[in-house]
Amino acid sequence: MSETSPKLRAELEGIPTYKPGKPAAGGGPVAYKLSSNENPYPPLPGVMESVTAAAASFNRYPDLACTLLINELSERFGVPASHLATGTGSVGVAQQLVQATSGPGDEVIYAWRSFEAYPIITQISGAKAVQVPLTPGDVHDLDAMADAITERTRLIFVCNPNNPTGTVVKRAELERFLDRVPRDVLVVLDEAYREFIRDPEVPDGVELYRKRPNVCVLRTFSKAYGLAGLRVGFAIAHEPVAEALRKTAVPFGVSQLAQEAAIASLRAEDALLGRVGSLVCERLRVVEGLRAQGWTVPETQANFVWLRLGELTVPFAAACEQAGVVVRPFPGEGVRVTVGENEANDIFLKVAEGFRKDL
Ligand SMILES: Cc1ncc(COP(=O)(O)O)c(C=O)c1O
């Protein structure tokens, strides 16, 4: 066999591989996965029925244009169908946005730490990543992000609420930031956790998009709607951005099962948002419980909490795992813990309490 391997693009060197949340350990008496910000509720019966019915024809390709889903979304959000584009999860759409705007010599700005896919998809494109540190309070530093814009900037991600800190940027500061961004730079408002927001000062990206042609909103069915395993997300954007997304889409990327499940979920929105309400109550219980134990917890508007633990991150995550809950460690920085089933949250709170006492 020859030693020579096929030539690959130099940009791929050193790309960190996406680390999925660790699965819940098997074998133990209880094992809960709080490492991927998933929805702990099983699919609604009606959604299951739609998927089961769609499964009968998976020998056929799906509807390439996701016509029915796009029409439902168009009505639901009051936007033209031509301003909608679907993809394989919102991360798939985010990658298309980078691909459509940025290449070698260009720059993509995002806060750091933020969603770990941003560095990966930026590096794949060949563009330079410009990471702007969060403020000491773990919030996007929008002034510093605006200062980082150059004539090479093509795209800026604003993750609101931010993964993994759960922190938000509010209406006035976001509007002020958008006013500073040149009109030919795309701002992507990644609102994967939008439905979990209860703070009225956090703007709905869709309202901002209406007045600003360089704003694109990313949403997903993976979190509040509980369809993470089916891979469907979407963008709301003006032309020509939405058109560019249709051009860069992998043909037939969104399966018919995913399309039917998403449509059924939109029609069952009341029940799904009721579940989100319960998770928001649990979030409050977890945050208040942690604070009562003496932890500093940033205000979270997502379905997870962030504990900045520094060097204690890895031992803390190990203690959680031993007790039956798997959390997401970012070594040297902190842990992100999804708000899950009540029993799982109880276990996590108990571990946090014990750990705190031993400090
Ligand atoms: C901020 C953010 N954006 C996008 C995604 C991607 O979600 P999906 O590709 O499942 O829609 C995630 C997933 O964790 C996320 O945290």
TrEMBL record:
It catalyses: an aromatic L-alpha-amino acid + 2-oxoglutarate = an aromatic oxo-acid + L-glutamate. The keyword Transcription does not apply. The keyword Transferase applies. GO terms for molecular function: aromatic-amino-acid transaminase activity; histidinol-phosphate transaminase activity; pyridoxal phosphate binding. PROSITE patterns: AA_TRANSFER_CLASS_2. Homodimer. This is Aromatic amino acid aminotransferase.
